[in-house]
Design a protein that fits this description.
Pathway: Cofactor biosynthesis; thiamine diphosphate biosynthesis; 4-methyl-5-(2-phosphoethyl)-thiazole from 5-(2-hydroxyethyl)-4-methylthiazole: step 1/1
Helix content: 40-55%
Shape: globular
Protein name: Hydroxyethylthiazole kinase
Number of domains: 1
Family: Belongs to the Thz kinase family.
Low-confidence stretches: 150-162
Keywords: ATP-binding, Kinase, Magnesium, Metal-binding, Nucleotide-binding, Thiamine biosynthesis, Transferase
Pfam families: HK
Strand order of the largest sheet: 2-1-3-4-5-6-7-8-9
CATH class: Alpha Beta
Radius of gyration: 17 Å
CATH superfamily: Ribokinase
Distance between the termini: 11 Å
Number of strands: 9
């Protein structure tokens, strides 16, 4: 925290923007299209609806490109891959970039497998507007894109599937580099990276925030991170990248805390999470703990 009045004013302005984003999503029901993995597609769509948005799910490149023309934003998740995705996803990313469309990337299991690596490497020059992942995925993507000097890159300890083996603190520099890279090529002139963990981190490359809270039960259901990526895309349809990433992460922190109290285990937690996403107020989200760091 800072006692600097200018810092406090800036944080107050940010809170107001977060509140407005939550309000706008529920008032406008924006469409965020998802090309997401097979395991979690149902939860992603339901979470987008519960947050107040509209969902569209597709795997056909021509469908995705056509729907992007009417969608407010888009979401690509590389969690489960088929052979044709190796050509389809780079083409989709190129078209989104050429057409000035915003999108969110979840680089699930970055660093594992030649196909996934080739796809993620292809996004470097036509990148998303927001990247959301765990610490290991963020570190791996930063390394894939060659954004760090060789002597300053901190590689992930080992590939870990969809689970992080690195702490959020280890991904701070990688997240900042990625965010600055996204901003340089973004159709809206800005980008953001959200790193999920015990204490989430969100950065636009210039300002960095830590978000305490949330529930450890999020690690006991499949698709929590994937659905957060989808909801981040929902917010990106109405807000600039930093605000969208913060609003989605904070919404999930508050909703997961409520869901944990109301559930008896993973099954009821998932149901309670959807209910909480629906019921958490804009004021509750905006009033969450937000710690600005260097």
């Amino acid at each position: 925290m800072s006692d600097d009045p200018s810092t406090n004013d800036a944080l107050g302005t940010l809170r107001a923007a977060i509140k407005q984003a939550v309000t706008d999503v529920r008032g406008q029901t924006p469409l965020a299209q998802s090309f997401t993995n097979f395991v979690t597609i149902n939860l992603v769509a339901n979470a987008q609806l519960a947050a107040g948005g509209t969902a569209a799910m597709s795997y056909l490149p021509d469908d995705v490109i056509a729907t992007a023309e009417i969608a407010g934003s888009n979401y690509i998740n590389v969690g489960t891959l088929l052979p044709f995705f190796k050509n389809a996803l780079p083409e989709i990313a190129r078209k989104l970039h050429e057409n000035g469309k915003t999108w969110v990337l979840d680089p699930v299991a970055a660093g594992i497998g030649e196909t996934r690596t080739a796809i993620l490497e292809s996004f470097r020059d036509v990148p998303p507007t927001i990247v959301r992942g765990n610490a290991s995925e963020i570190i791996a993507l930063d390394a894939m894109w060659g954004l760090a000097d060789a002597d300053s890159t901190t590689p992930a300890t080992r590939p870990a599937g969809v689970e992080a083996v690195d702490e959020v603190d280890a991904a701070v520099d990688a997240a900042k580099r990625l965010a600055r890279h996204l901003a340089k090529r973004s159709p809206v002139g800005a980008g953001a990276v959200a790193v999920s963990g015990a204490v989430d981190l969100v950065t636009d490359g210039e300002r960095t925030f830590r978000l305490p809270g949330g529930s450890a039960m999020m690690t006991k259901i499949t698709g929590a991170g994937c659905s957060l990526g989808g909801v981040t895309a929902t917010y990106l349809a109405v807000a600039e990248p930093l605000v969208a990433a913060l609003a989605a992460s904070l919404l999930y922190d508050r909703a997961s805390e409520i869901a944990e109290v109301k559930s008896d285990g993973p099954g009821s937690f998932q149901v309670a999470l959807l209910d909480a996403l629906w019921n958490v107020t804009a004021d509750q989200v905006a009033a969450s703990d937000i710690i600005e760091t260097n």
